Amino acid sequence: MSKNKFFKKLLVGGLCALTATAMIGATACKPDNGDDGEEHVHNYATTWSSDENGHWYACLNSGHTDAYNKISHVDENNDGKCDACEWDMSEEDPDNPDNPDNPDNPDVPVTYATEKVSIDVSSLDSAPNGAEIVSGSGIYSTDGLTVTNNSKTILYNGNEISVTKRIQTNGTGKIDTKSLKFEIANDNSVIVIYAISGSTNTERSLFLKDSEGTDVTTQSVGEGNYVNTVVFEVATAGTYYVGSVSSGINIYHISVWEGGKLNETVVQTEEAKSATCEEAGNIAYTKTNFGRYKDSSNKIVTQDKIYSPATGHDYSLVTESLKEPTADAEGSIDVVCANDAEHNFTATLPVLTNDGYTKVTEGIQLEEGQAYYGYAIPGIKDKDGLSLTVSFFAEDVEQKEVTWSTVYNNNFDGNDTVTLTSDIKTETNGGLYGNFTDTTANNYVGLVADGDYLYVYDNETSNTTEAYILLDNAITSGALKLTGTVTLTATNSSWTFLQLLNASGEEFVGLRTPSAGNIGVRIDGGTPSGSVAFSKDVEFSFEITIDLDNRVVSVTIGTTKIDDVNLGTKGTGLSIIKFATASGARSIKVGSIMLETKD
User: What is the 8-class DSSP label of residue 401?
Assistant: First the structure.
C-alpha cells in the first residue's frame, strides 16, 4: 500500500473506528448461548469487510450479522481500487457522482477545498535553487530547474489561461534536484499541476514524494502533445516534492488548495466517434473545469488517450478505367478509396510531354516508337503510404524541359543589410529582417562576412532569435522550390528551425526535429513526417518543393528524400521564410538560400 493510500485509509477509516469504539456499551446484543440472559456489547472488527456495494466493520460475535458504518467505495486515486479497503472497482461506476465521498448519505455535504496559492509560470523570470518561486507561496525550487518561453492554453477552474512560460525539470527528479518542494501547512490539501512531457509521443509521469524521498504516488502527464492536469491529494501536512519520474517535463501552472476535495465539475461531454480517412476519432469522454478528462468508466485519462488519428485513405487504381493520354490530349484513371467510397475520384493524366512522367525506352520489350510511362498521381498514396503510380505503354514523345525562374537568391556575402526589429509585420514588403530580445546576451541576427553566412545567434535558454526573409510578392499558385545550406549548432528535439509562412504569418510547412539529431517535415504545425539524421555543427543541404495546385510537398535533406506529403489547409501561398532558434541556446548558420518558381 502506498503512503498516500495509507493516509487516505486513516482519513476514511479512522473516524469510523473511533465511533465504533464509542458505541461499545451503548449498543447491545444477546450472548452466543443465550443462557445467562446478560447483554453484552458488539465485538466489531478493526478491519474492513467488503463487497461490490461497499465496505463496513462487521460484528465478530458468532451468529451476528450486525455491521457498523457501511459506506460505498471511494477511488480518489483513480487506480481502480477503493482507497479504504482496496476493493477492485475497475468494473464499477460510482453510484452518486455528485457526492462520491458518501453516496449512501447524499444529504451529507462534501467539503470542497479553497484556493491557497495559484501560480501562472508566465509571472516567473527564473527558478533559483532553494528559493520560493513566488514569495509566501510555500513552493520552492530545487537545483536544476529553468524557466523558458513557451506558450500553452490551459483550463483552470473554468477559466482559459494563456501561459507564456514553463518550468523545465530538465530530467529525472529527486528531492534535492530537478523538483518542486511544497510546504503543505494543513491536512487534507490538494496540489494541482498543469504539465506536458518534454518529448513528443513519449509518455512521462510526475511523482509525489514525502520529506524522506519516499514515493507517495505518481501520475502520468501523457505524451508530449497536450498539456494535462495532475491532481495530488495530500492527506497530512508536511514537506512534499514533485518531479519527473524519468526525463524532462514542462510545468505551466501550479496551485495549492486546502480543506477538502477539489471541486471539479463537468464542462464538456462528447460521445464516441470513429476515426475517418480525414478526421480523428475519439472515445466517449467528459472534461472538467480543471481540464481533466474522464472516460466512459469515469477513470482519469490523459488527453492523448482520448483521440485516435485519422485512418488515412486506402487508395487504389481501377486499371480497366485507364484512358491513356497522348502528346496532345489528357487521359484519366479512376481512383477508389477502400475506407470511404465518397472519396473515390477520377484522376487526370497530363499530356505525355509533361515533365511529371518518368519514361523508360530501354531494357524492356517495346514496339518501335513506344515508351513505358509512369506517373505518380500528386498527393495520393496507397495503404502503405507509397505514391500511387499509374504505368502504361504509349507513343514515345519528347518531354518538355523543366525550367525554373529565380525569385530570391542569397549567399550572404556581406553585401546585404539586416533590419533589426522587435516585431515582424506581414505587411512589410521585401527585405531581410531580424527579431531579437537581448543583444547584450549575444542574441541577434547578423551577417558574417568571414564565412559568408547569416547567423541567427541564441546564447540563452529563455529567448528566441528569429530571421525573416520577406518576399516582395506572395507565391500563391504553381510550383516553387526552396533550396539552401544550413548548419545547426544543437541537436535538440522539437525544434522547428525553418518555417514557411503564408500571408497571415501562419506556418504551413516547417523543417522540425521530431527527435534529437533528426529532421522531418511538419505541415500546418502538426506532427512531423519522416526522419533524416543530421550532425551538430555540420552543414547540410535541403530542398523543399511545393506544388500549390496539386497540394503536394516534397522534402530532401542532403541526399535523402522524405516521401511526398500533402499540403495542409494553411498552404495558401508563400510570403515569408523564417529561421528560428526556438530558445534553448540553439543557433543557426544559413550559408545560402534560393527560391525558384516553375515556368
Answer: P
Strands (E), 436-506: 444-448, 453-457, 466-475, 479-488, 496-501
> pTM of the predicted model, to two decimals?
0.59
Span 336-390, pLDDT tens digits = 999 999 999 999 999 999 988 999 888 888 999 999 999 999 888 888 878 899 9
Q: How far apart are the C-alpha atoms of 357 and 376, rounded to whole Å?
A: 8
8 Å CB contact between 570 and 508: yes
Tens of pLDDT, residue by residue over 315-346, are 999 999 999 999 999 999 999 999 999 999 99
Amino acid residing at 256: V
Cα 541 from Cα 381, distance rounded (Å):
27
Say if residues 416 and 409 touch (Cβ distance below 8 Å): no
Q: H/E/C letters for each residue in 100-138?
A: CCCCCCCCCCCCECEEEEEEEHHHCCCCCCCCECCCCCC
- Match 504505368 to its residue by C-alpha cell: 391
The per-residue DSSP string of 475-490 comes to E-SSEEEEEEEEEES-
CA–CA dist 201, 555 (Å, integer): 23
Q: Which residues contact 446 (CB under 8 A, 6 or more apart)?
A: 418, 434, 454, 455, 457
Distance CA 574, CA 107 (A): 63
Spatial separation of the C-alpha atoms in residues 385 and 264, rounded to whole Å = 43
Which residues of the chain fall short of a pLDDT of 50?
Answer: 1-40, 92-99, 101-104, 426-427
Phi and psi at 477, nearest 5°, equal: -150, 170
Cell triple for residue 499? 518555417
- Look up residue 464 and give its three cell numbers: 528566441
- CB-based contacts of 199, cutoff 8 Å, min separation 6: 224, 247, 248, 493, 494, 515
Q: For the chain, how many residues are written?
A: 599
**Local structure of 304: helix, strand or coil:** helix
Backbone angles phi, psi at 498, to 5 degrees: -130, 125
Contact 445, 456 (CB under 8 A): yes
